[in-house]
Amino acid sequence: MLFDVYGDNAVYQWIGWIIVFLALVGFNEIARRTKIGGITCFLVIPGILTAYFIAIYAGAAAGAEWALNNPTYLYMNSWFHYAKLYAATAGCIGFLILKYHWGSLGKAEWFKCFPFVIVAINILIAVVSDFESAVRAFGTTWVSSEGVTLYGGWHNVFNGVAGILNIFVMTGWWGIYVSKKKQDMLWPDMTWVFILSYDIWNFCYTYNCLPTHSWYCGLALLLAPTVANFFWNKGGWIQNRAYTLSLWCMFCQVVPMFANDSIFAVQSVNNPDVNLVVSILALVANVAAVGYVIYRAKKLGVNPYTHEVFKGTRDYEQAMLREENAA
Predict the structure, then answer these.
(1) If you placed Cys at 137, which of 111, 152, 190, 225 could pair as Cys (CB 3.0 to 4.6 Å)?
(2) Is the pTM of this model over 0.90?
(3) What per-residue confidence (pLDDT) applies to 173?
(4) Residue 170 pLDDT > 90, yes or no?
(5) DSSP-assigned beta bridge partners for residue 3
(6) Which residues of 110-134 are buried (b: 16+ CB within 10 A; e: fewer)?
């Protein structure tokens, strides 16, 4: 078993998972289908939350009781949560610029590599967090600033390496397009090869380093963009992922007790042996994915990062049918 989902709360834990999954799918659709939805979700709401976070820390510095006892201050105070929230939101804003061709950036050819850059940054944030556990407590445990017990060991090292490899599974950095009706930013070369290797690696990261949240952010949060990509938003996975990740981070930063300590809360078994097995799977999956990218690049005789290497595959061609200039 990966999670402690049993007993009197099991029904509520599954209900919570379903609610989170459906909410992420629904809010992603609101954000992607209309310009006002995207602006509200990734410019207006983050602006309000930033003011809220500043007020909390200013209040805490002044010794205000309401701030010192605020759940955000107590349970979501690590560098990782803020880095992930703002990196994901920056990605969402960049994707809005690209799909609506806002300003000179939205029309610049060089800015098409922004999705690669921001995804690589997001991956590296998690990689650093994995390595942090290995350095802090190799072979033992440590307690984070948020009161979560974490194991450090080879599982962190293996998954950190898997994350670095995952960056090199992203191909066709400049192959960024806009869908009809400008609903989506498309990255057709980001096919199932990257999506599957990323999902396995990222699940492992959450399992290693976010054991109190992994039931939601390691499963529901990863499945929401993947399901959307495979069924109705082909080629739009990276936009789906950024949108749902940003929205989830905003929710958790304000309402951390939903996942931490409520009737819906689920803990992973937090067993280093289980973590090791999952991490080995993540490493193997990403070694295989990099190998497949090399194979495709050699087959086509191209650089996999300056050129698209999955042209002719089913995923790529289905995504390109959605491109705004497609016949």
Answers:
(1) 152
(2) yes
(3) 97
(4) yes
(5) 268
(6) ebbebbbebbbebbbbbbebbbbbb
Tens of pLDDT, residue by residue over 188-201, are 999 999 999 999 99
Tokens found for residue 67: 């701030």
Q: With beta carbons less than 8 A apart as the criterion, state whether 111 and 93 touch.
A: no
Helices (H), the chain: 10-33, 35-39, 45-61, 65-68, 71-75, 79-100, 103-107, 114-136, 154-167, 192-209, 214-215, 221-231, 237-254, 257-260, 272-300, 314-320
Q: For residue range 116-127, list pLDDT tens digits in order.
A: 999 999 999 999
First CA to last CA across the chain, in angstroms? Answer: 49
User: Strand, helix or coil at 200?
Assistant: helix
Retrieve residue 185's tokens: 């930013």
231 contacts: CB under 8 Å, gap ≥ 6: none
For tokens 């960024």, the residue is 176
Q: Rounded to an integer, what distance in angstroms lies between the CA atom of residue 307 and that of residue 141?
A: 44
- Which residue in 205, 214, 187 sits closest to 1, CA to CA? 214
Q: How far apart are CA 318 and CA 67, in angstroms?
A: 50
> Across the chain, what does the average pLDDT equal?
96
d(CA 146, CA 42): 26
Biggest CA–CA distance in the chain, Å, is: 64
pLDDT of residue 6: 85
pLDDT reported for residue 146: 87
Asked if pLDDT for residue 49 goes beyond 70, the answer is yes
Phi and psi at residue 268, to the nearest 5°: -75, 165
Give the single-character DSSP code of 327. Answer: -
Length of the chain: 327
Q: Are 260 and 144 in contact (CB under 8 A)?
A: no
**68: Cβ contacts below 8 Å, ≥ 6 apart:** 59, 60
CA separation, residue 197 to residues 52, 138, 279 (Å): 36, 26, 12
Structure tokens given for 63: 């010794």
Which amino acid, residue 50?
T
Torsion angles phi and psi, residue 309, rounded to 5: -105, -5
